[in-house]
Amino acid sequence: MSVLVFVENWDGKFKKLTFEIVSYASKLAELLNTSAIALSVGNVENLELEKLGKYGAQKIISATNEKLNVLDNRIYTDVIADFARKEGAEVIVLANNITGKALAPRLSVNLSAGIGSGVGKLPISLDPFVVFKKVYSGNAFAHVRIKSRIKILTLAQNSFEVIETGNNASIEQHKIQVRDEIFNTHVQEVQKQTGKIVLTDADIVISGGRGMKSPDNWPPLVELAGLLGGALACSRPVSDEGWRPHEEHTGQTGKIIAPNLYIAVGISGSTQHIAGVSSSKYIVAINIDKDAPIFANAQYGIIGDAVKILPKLIDAVKEVKGK
Amino acid sequence: MKILVCISNVPDTTTKIKFIDDNKKLDTTGIQWIINPWDELSLTRALDMKDDAASGVQKVTVAHVGLGSSEPTIRKALAMGADDAIRINAEPIDAFFVAAQLSEVIKNAGFDIILCGIESSDYNGSTAGGMLAEFLGYPSVSSVSSIKSENGQIIMTREIDGGKEIISMPVPLVAIIQKGIAKEPRIAAMRGIMTARTKPINVSQPITIESLTEVINYEMPKPRAACKFVDPENPKQLVELLQNEAKVI
Ligand SMILES: Cc1cc2nc3c(=O)[nH]c(=O)nc-3n(C[C@H](O)[C@H](O)[C@H](O)COP(=O)(O)OP(=O)(O)OC[C@H]3O[C@@H](n4cnc5c(N)ncnc54)[C@H](O)[C@@H]3O)c2cc1C
Ligand SMILES: Nc1ncnc2c1ncn2[C@@H]1O[C@H](COP(=O)(O)O)[C@@H](O)[C@H]1O
């Protein structure tokens, strides 16, 4: 028996998200009286792999093969399912990010394992196995029972504290075989933005809506994001109008994010927008309309004209940050 | 080439969600049902591909697992331009059940491209598409933001963290669709609505399969604490709250 946690790497490195899911898996393993095993797929150096032990992984499996440098969903599913069987995994934990969403469903069918997707906390009960998940785009939650012997959980980003336990873990290296005949993902080209904080990773997000009136009014938002070390986001009409790039659109049909702080400027707070940001720890709204629905979702608010407020806010941040 | 678009039937995204029967069931009174927004965009893209003779797409079918009550949603897809529809007559219990039912009718039907949405706006599972691919033994690509067909190969854009990849893949395949695939959903024209009435909806009976999960009950989100307002003349107060109270900057 074990809890197996699949850890993705980004050019051989892990992220805070990785340590969140490893912390989650080891806490869950503790509750189940078993151990957490981390499975890394693709090339990662030992020094990086060792970090996983700090967050409670008792064993680290590093599976490598040249074919694993590209995410082919079937090949990855094969690899993870194989190790899940070998290690007698009772629960498999993945991140609820792009990769987790691509793999968890295939694993589910492969292992006849029910999924609790996008969970934000430990199960409500272990027997029966019941998890708590967001439904109706954040307008409700459900208690979902997973009936199968093996369970798959995908953990929502920024929902679980990183816990350092200081374990020393053993590392097992496996050069593995893959089924070449099912490899079908031929990457022609990769386009990466560099030097920018990836929106879904950001702890602080500064977001502008149609209330910003024109793309010419964005420099203060950019400056604020720079000062706070945050990423930029926007509402859908803003990206539809081409004021800002599509990658910045948050909401039900855009990116779903969970930063510690989301500052919404000139955004009305439609249900579809909130669906993408409701998991933020703190929401600040700046809006000229005191009745804007965004205020019902915010902890802090300023009622007024954003164009006038932003320069003062920037000065205040500079003062506090001593810049 | 034949495209299949899997559609789920969900409450309009602005619906006030309420539950009945001790929070065990959704209160459906007054709910407007729509095609899941992702599926509407997938269908739009499929129809655009069919309109482009060079893409070699001859037919667009929609498939849905649901009871007769969701036929208006299927008719809407037909009115948008789908050629025909398959409805598997069962209450969708969970994504595993849905994917198993879909794979049963798809497996020998010769579809080349199967489109699913990244998530249903009701259950927010993000799982049915990948499950379907695994049941069928087809390759899948997730987070697809563009798709076209070129000389029998399918070219797709896949979103990755902080960028994108252009991928080619042979058919048959399952593509799981996200933002970017089409800008606005296609609107059904009057003529489409008229012809939709005569297009076939092929109803098939479900196979017996156990779901792997079940919803025990629902719960409404706790209301957030009331918003603290800060004087617009003095945003410094906000910065102090963020630093000392929320401790987020
Ligand atoms: C199926 C579907 C999916 C959708 N998905 C998304 C999604 O993913 N994300 C998304 O964002 N939207 C989405 N939408 C659109 C959504 O319904 C709203 O139309 C959109 O979020 C509104 O954007 P906004 O708040 O920027 O603009 P508006 O609603 O126009 O609000 C502008 C706000 O700015 C304020 N304002 C004006 N002037 C000033 C000023 N000088 N200073 C300060 N404030 C000012 C106004 O009071 C107002 O509250 C979706 C819609 C549908 C139907
Ligand atoms: N009842 C259903 N019938 C047909 N397709 C469905 C059904 N439910 C979900 N899907 C498909 O699976 C996608 C993802 O749904 P989900 O996994 O429920 O979030 C949807 O966008 C649809 O393409």
What does this structure look like?
The complex is a heterodimer of chains A (323) and B (249). With 323 residues, chain A is of the alpha/beta class. Chain A has 2 domains: 2-182, Rossmann fold (3-Layer(aba) Sandwich), CATH 3.40.50.620; 199-321, Rossmann fold. Helix content of chain A is 28%, strand content 28%. Chain A has helices at residues 16-31, 46-54, 73-86, 98-111, 219-228, 236-240, 271-277, 306-321, and strands spanning 2-7, 36-41, 59-64, 89-95, 114-119, 125-126, 129-135, 140-146, 151-155, 170-175, 186-192, 204-208, 231-234, 261-265, 282-287, 300-303. A 7-stranded parallel β-sheet of chain A has the order 5-9-4-1-2-3-10, with helices on both faces. A 5-stranded parallel β-sheet of chain A has the order 13-12-14-15-16. Chain A has a 3-stranded antiparallel β-sheet with strand order 6-7-8, with no helix packed on it. In chain A, strand 12 (204-208), helix 5 and strand 13 form a beta-alpha-beta unit. In chain A, helix 3 (73-86) packs across helix 4 and helix 5 runs parallel beside helix 8. Chain A starts with a strand and ends with a helix. Chain B has 249 residues and is α/β, with parallel strands linked by helices. Chain B has one domain: Rossmann fold. Helices cover 25% and strands 31% of the residues of chain B. Chain B has helices spanning 37-51, 71-80, 95-106, 128-136, 190-196, 236-245; strands spanning 2-6, 9-11, 19-20, 25-26, 33-35, 59-65, 84-88, 113-117, 140-150, 153-160, 163-170, 173-177, 201-204, 213-219, 228-230. Chain B starts with a strand and ends with a helix. The relative contact order of chain B is 0.18. The mean pLDDT of chain B is 95. Classes of the chains: A alpha/beta (323), B alpha/beta (249). Chains A and B meet through helix 3, helix 4, strand 5, strand 7 and strand 8 of A and helix 3, helix 4, strand 9, strand 10 and strand 11 of B. The structure holds flavin-adenine dinucleotide and adenosine monophosphate.
